[in-house]
Each structure stands twice: as structure tokens, then as C-alpha cells.
Amino acid sequence: DVEFKNLGMLVIDDEQRFGVKQKEKLKQLRNTLDILSLSATPIPRTLYIALSSLKAMSMLQTAPEGRTAVEIFIGQRSAHVIKKAIERELARKGQVYYLHNRIGRLEAVRKEIKTLVPQAGIEILHGRLKEKELSRLMTDFRKGRFDVLLATTIIENGLDIPTVNTLIVDDAAKLGLSQAYQIRGRVGRSHSQAFAYFLHGKK
User: Fold this and answer.
1) What pLDDT shows up at residue 45?
2) CA proximity to 23, closest of 7, 40, 33, 35
3) By 3-state DSSP, what share of the chain in percent is helix, strand and coil, each rounded to 5?
4) Range in 43-47, 58-62, 131-135, 150-154 the model is least confident about
5) Where are the alpha helices (DSSP H) in the chain?
6) How many Cα neighbours within 13 Å face the side chain of 101?
7) What does the pLDDT read at residue 66?
């Protein structure tokens, strides 16, 4: 219901998050203004539009200065892989995102991680926590007061913590392509080499 007097350009960030209804509305604006759509997530629809020349596309493939590409490991879930990944990050004074998307099992997973890496400080974060608790946990994590943030896909967007350079994803096959790319982007936001482990199979 917002109307602009003389709009000349529209910039859409995270285009993959817009649904068909919103995109149809935006199409109607294309006749009267320039639209620049941004996405860090190569979803099939965007690829199809580019390949069929329905939309011009530019790709930025050069990482920001001082950053390296995230090293990705895809494999079977195992205690050995989880233990080594966390220990390696803690050895270089870094922090870890551990994604497990079933709230009911988060406490059991915390106990498992604690058994594997007893020295690690671990806290749980999910969308059913109260706002104050969410805020406190994120502040504490940002300040390095604990080592592993065990969370649901609530970490998917907006987190930029340079000290977190290892990501472990449980049951990664349940993520969509868009989600996997977004979550991978939570690490590798500093000059340190980042690692992302997408694990399949259950405990």
C-alpha cells in the first residue's frame, strides 16, 4: 500500500525469499523502473531465467579481500568427524555453529557433543526461546563466552561473527538448496579458513 511519487530504481535483496505472488507484483513495475535483484543463493528458478535470457545476470565470483572459499565436507555422520572438526576449531581459538533442526533432540545432541569434546562450552538456541534469552545467548556467543552454538535453522540469516569458522550440519539432506547456501554463508566471514560439514545419516 506504499506509493512512491517518482521511483526510478528498485533493489531486491535475497530475491530467492520472494514468493510467486510477490514476484508477479514486481513484474508489473518493470515497465516503469529499473529493477536490480540480488541473491547469494543459486536456486534453479534463477538459473532457468538466466539461461533462457529472460533476465540479464552478472556473477560476482571474487571473494572479498583477505577471504578464502569455505572448504566443504559432505559425508556420513560420525562421532569421529564431529569430534575432530570441533577440536580443530577450538585449537585455533575459534567457535562452531552446530545445526540440528529438531528442537526435541537438541539436549541429547548437546550431551553427545559434550561427551566427545568435554572442554567445549555449548549453548542451545532455537525459535521457541523468549526474545530476551535469544538476545542474551547471541551476545554471549559473540563475546566468546562459549564455544559451540547448537541451534536450529534460526541461524540461517543475519549472523556475522568472524570468530565462527566451522559449521556442522546434522541430517543435511533435509535442507533445501537455498537453505544450504544461506547456512554455509554463516562461516568464512573473516581471514581465517572456514570449514562446513554437511553430514547425512542419523546417530
Assistant:
1) 67
2) 35
3) 35, 20, 45
4) 43-47
5) 20-29, 44-51, 79-91, 106-116, 131-142, 177-184
6) 18
7) 77
User: For residue 21, what pLDDT is reported?
Assistant: 83
Gap between the Cα atoms of 82 and 113, Å rounded:
8
Global confidence as pTM: 0.80
CA 42 to CA 178: how far, in whole Å?
7
Q: Which residues pair with 98 in a beta bridge?
A: 150, 168
DSSP secondary-structure letter at 71?
Answer: E
Number of H helices, E strands in the chain: 6, 8
Which residue type, as a one-letter code, is found at position 117?
Answer: V
Q: What's the pLDDT tens digit per position in 45-95? A: 667 777 777 777 787 777 777 778 899 999 999 999 999 999 999 999 999
Cα angle 148, 154, 157; round to 5? 100
Round to the nearest angstrom and report the end-to-end CA distance of the chain.
50
Coil, helix or strand at residue 77: coil
In contact, 150 and 125? CB cutoff 8 Å: yes
Cα(188)–Cα(70) distance, integer angstroms = 6
The grid coordinates of residue 128 equal 521457541
